[in-house]
Amino acid sequence: MKNILFLMLVICSNLYSQNWQQKTSVYNYGRAAAFACSANGKGYVGLGQVNGGSYVNEFWEYDTLQNLWTKKADFPGGARNGSSAFAVKGKIYICFGITNSAACTNDIWEYNPNNNT
Q1: Where are the extended beta strands (E) located within 67-107?
Q2: Tens place of pLDDT per residue across the chain (117 aa)
Q3: Which distant-in-sequence residues (6+ apart) come within 8 Å of 32 by Cβ?
């Protein structure tokens, strides 16, 4: 009985492990402490820490149908790391984070994907 359970586990794990598929990378460098969320069938990634410590205010949109990243308007709240994001009714809300001067923020910003503002 143990052999049958083990065999079933191996078969199932092989089926599920083969479902991963790498997609287009977002840009030329890695990123830590960025936010990510989705709205209107697209993915969004932004802010965070790059290249050994620099905080950025970049904002990117991922189109799953085209497997394509597009740079959107920069985040106007300034470069920061560790922000949170969520989507409600097609708009994205970005809040909190830590600035380059190690100040914690308590603001919230609304992004409208329809007009890139």
Answers
A1: 68-71, 84-88, 91-95
A2: 555 555 455 555 555 557 888 999 887 778 899 999 999 999 999 999 998 788 999 999 999 999 999 999 999 999 999 999 999 999 999 999 999 889 999 999 999 999 999
A3: 48, 49, 50, 81
